[in-house]
Amino acid sequence: MIELKDISKSYRSGSVSVEAIRNINLTVNKGEIFGIIGHSGAGKSTLLRCVNLLERPSTGSVKVGGEELTTLSSSQLQMQRRRIGMIFQHFNLLSLATVRSNIAFPLRLAKMGMKEIDRRVNELLKLVGLVDHADKYPSQLSGGQKQRVGIARALANNPDVLLCDEATSALDPQTTNSILALLVDINQKLGITILLITHEMHVIRSICDRVAVIDKGEVVESGEVLKVFLKPEHPVTIDFVSQVADSFDVTELIGVSRGKLVRLNYIGDLTYEPILYNAVKTTSVEFTILQGIVSRMKGTPYGQLVIELIGNEPEIKKVIAALRSEGLDVGELT
Ligand SMILES: Nc1ncnc2c1ncn2[C@@H]1O[C@H](COP(=O)(O)OP(=O)(O)OP(=O)(O)O)[C@@H](O)[C@H]1O
Fold this sequence. Notes:
Elements: E1 2-13, E2 16-28, E3 33-37, H1 44-51, E4 59-64, E5 67-68, H2 74-81, E6 84-88, H3 99-109, H4 114-128, H5 143-155, E7 161-165, H6 173-190, E8 193-198, H7 201-207, E9 210-215, E10 218-224, H8 225-230, H9 235-241, H10 251-256, E11 260-267, H11 275-280, E12 286-297, E13 300-310, H12 313-325, E14 329-332
Helix pairs in contact: 3-4, 3-5, 4-5, 5-6
GO molecular function, one term: ATP binding
Keywords: Amino-acid transport, ATP-binding, Cell membrane, Membrane, Nucleotide-binding, Translocase, Transport
InterPro entries: AAA+_ATPase (IPR003593), ABC_transporter-like_ATP-bd (IPR003439), ABC_transporter-like_CS (IPR017871), ACT-like_dom_sf (IPR045865), MetN_ABC (IPR041701), MetN_ABC_transporter-like (IPR050086), NIL_domain (IPR018449), P-loop_NTPase (IPR027417)
């Protein structure tokens, strides 16, 4: 649905040129929720704004739904942009217009008839849960309600893609979760592809299918969220994963363990299988669980255990081989 090829963007600041993003290649599949995470100044907003050409990349190609956007005339681009909705951290609502008029705004721009606009706005109010607030002004709404207006407005023209620019960063944790749930609902009900940027791993973990980590204008790591979460490789990714409370720091354990420390990653149905028991039962190896989590991410079960294997070396090797042969990802920490 979105294909970015070799995108770079430089800004001129007086005589100095700042390269905000460099050689970015990114593909977002239809129906996917894709997250881009990075620290402040990493280039997230620039990258997101390149997708609908609010920023025009200095070099590279931007395809949305198979259509190359960088070569379109301004009127063609305007048409294509109707297929790409966008929501913002600070909502960007018209303060002098009611909720209803804010949502109707893009429909009026698209020259839809009054009756049809009314019908569509009512449908959108229902979708985002704002039926009772239709005639209020933005100043009379909470942050979460304002973002719901932003979402309804972004969906008005039935876009294929929704771009989310730090959409929950101005909201408290509970409201953040309700907006994230709404985004998942929209993704599932309407099949809209969502591309979001954030600096919070919680957002990625809660709703994204895949993630790209961006640092100093470059993608440094990308993949399925569960895999990146369980086995982050780049230091920036490790830093983000450690933001989430149940991530592990094993450095202290390494100093005090008596046996061999290993980290086991389970993904999918394996999580509920007695693999560890089966691997040790015919040996004299004992194990203790030092850290662990068994949970679900977007409906997929996963587990991560740090265990200590106590026994003789050949038998420990045998246990590790048995765990691997059952499909577990085994990291040898000592
Ligand atoms: N219009 C501009 N003119 C000059 N430099 C810019 C402009 N916009 C962004 N930059 C620079 O480009 C780099 C990337 O900025 P960008 O806003 O894309 O990062 P970000 O990851 O979205 O950061 P934040 O999370 O703080 O918004 C920064 O060094 C920023 O100073």
